[in-house]
Amino acid sequence: MALRIGALDACNPGAMTGRGNRTYLLTGEGDATLVDAGVGDPRHLAAVAGALAGARLRQVLVTHGHHDHASGAPALAAAHPGAVFAKYPWPEEDARYAVAWRRLADGDRPAVGGERLTALHTPGHSPDHVVFWHEPSRTAFTGDLVIAGSSVMIQWSRGGSVAAYLASLERVRALAPRVLLPAHGPEVHDPDALLAAYVAHRLMRERQVVAALGAGCATVQAIAETIYHGLDPALMPAARENVRAHLEQLKAEGRAVHDADRWRL
Question: Which structural domain range is residue 40 located in?
Answer without folding.
Answer: 4-201
